[in-house]
## 1
Amino acid sequence: PEFDVVAAFVDVDICLVLDRSSSMKLDVTDPATGMGSSHPNYCLPPQPGSRWIALDQAVNEFLNEIGLTIGTERVGVVTFGSDFISSCGESNQKVALDQDLTSDMALVQFAMNTRSTTVWNGNTDIEAGVNMARQVLTGPSSRPLADKTMILLSDGSYTAANPTSEITLAASQNIVVHTISFGTGANQADMAAFAAAGGGSHYHADTATDFNAIFRKLAASISIIVK
């Protein structure tokens, strides 16, 4: 017998929605849920061994894996914290588009490296991050025929509005929302609920090794074959 099979690789637009609250500058092994202004690293960029640097390295793993797929993926980066001027004299925005959707992964890596070498602090306005990422994935830089994926990362709990309504709205616009909780202080129950509302999967990482494995797994799932 003979069979005719048609296979197509679906292009995907991906927005990484990343927590840059002060606690992301804590050490990966630190069980604390927040970083106060008296912490020696408060007025410094993220240091080696911190949660943010572990995230930066995991995102680089993700981008390397994305580069091996047959489809054409475009990646953007949104980071979220909170609005305030810290005691370090730094002005913090609750949300920022660090990199619009692009197929040039070097630009995404540059955006991550820039955050890794600057001072920032804040709380955890997840709703603001999801709102901006949704606009990115439905805006002029997005591709009408591409699948839409949001990857939301946090090491804590939301400190402003509950983001569920924004995630539900994203799902209604055909955006799949995956979530990653990181560390012992992360609210795994909330992050799992957010993934369920967004039609995606929830993952939890306790270590940098876990982090890398999760991002590699997500990257491998991006290239979809339709038969």
Note: The CA atoms of residues 61 and 115 lie 17 Å apart.
## 2
Amino acid sequence: MNQGKKYKAIVLIALIIGISISTAFGQQVECSSRAERVTAVTNANGHLITTKFQFDVPNLQPLLTTTFIASGPTCVVAHLSGLARITDNYVVFQVRIDGVPMRGHTFLPGVNTPVVFRTIDANPEYEDEQFIDPTKVVSYNFFASVPPGEHTVQVLAAAGSNIIAGLEPSVNALVLTLEYR
């Protein structure tokens, strides 16, 4: 087989795999509504993360909670941002509305709990900097469709399995902002 045919075959195989993977992960999910209201919550004292995220039995600790009243069926958009000080390998976050994780999370291999995560970079070029100040920006967006009425939104978190007392991971300037109708 000549080079041109090999290249076309590789491109065709990659295209088929890409289509298969996108089909396996399902269809795009969307919600929309006009945002007339905004609710925001923070804790000026920050949060120590003392809960270990175990892959066999995932644990999450609550960090922020707020409620809002939707005037009608609405698409709620949640923006979460802050500064995470990672003292082990990673931290994970989950934003729930009425006890259900909102859209925008991912699944870690072997774990059925949807979360978003931030890890310490694996690049040895930056290892010294990471050990001196392992603070990383975290910023995520989520959404969910909800019926009219009162709803509760929670931000939960956990960290790697090597939490050391006195050197716990932490999150500062953590802000949850909700947009809804």
Note: The two ends are 60 Å apart (CA to CA).
## 3
Amino acid sequence: MTTQLGMQDGDCVCFTAGPEVVAATALGAVRLHAARQLGWIPEGRFNFLWVTEFPLFEKSASGGVSPMHHPFTQPHPEDWELIASDPLRVRSRAYDIVCNGVELSSGAIRNHRPDVMKKAFAIAGYDESTLEQKFGGMLHALSLGAPPHGGIAL
């Protein structure tokens, strides 16, 4: 197998199994541990990064689709046409500020349009009665008109 992978002395290959999010989290932890052990992360240096355009939806454990963070984040305007046909490709208008791999803060542009919010909830499997029961007051308030809004929570 080392030949097929093009491995050389000192190389390491890691495998994991399980749901994608679990496997990615596990391998991410291995990558960070190895980088620290090998001195690839410089001490005393602060590297900041804005993470933007997270996916709006992800596959749920049941095989359906659920919001990546929550259903109140606005979908990226360029992706609106994908929301019914390919929701896993829809980006959100969410953002994080990260320093040295640690999330310092996150935020989003909130969904202020009831029609868009209803569609996002429907894709996530919420029926109309559940939506009305849990979020009816907010949907009514938004139907009266709300400006685009968002922020970041430190």
Note: DSSP finds three helices and six strands in the chain.
